[in-house]
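If you are new to this repository, start here. Below is one unmodified record pulled from the training split, so you can see the exact layout before writing a loader.
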Amino acid sequence: MSNSDTLGIWTVYARPRDYPAQFVARLFYLDQPSDQVLLADTLAEIREQLAAWGLMCLPRQPGDEPHIVEVWL
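And here is the target side for that same chain:
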């Protein structure tokens, strides 16, 4: 199965360890991270870009890691 056949999921993080001053969206295929990352100074900037691509936002779930803000499909 190639990445083009798999649903991509953007996970949005608030100030993760590798980018402590920024919001980060990372693209995952299934449970595997890709090399695609979006960086922004604000959550609004990340949301604006993901929404512009026609993606839908799902809120974080109770079992998510604390620095996960939301996911986009």
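Two things worth knowing about this chain: The CA atoms of residues 62 and 68 lie 10 Å apart. The longest helix spans residues 43-52.
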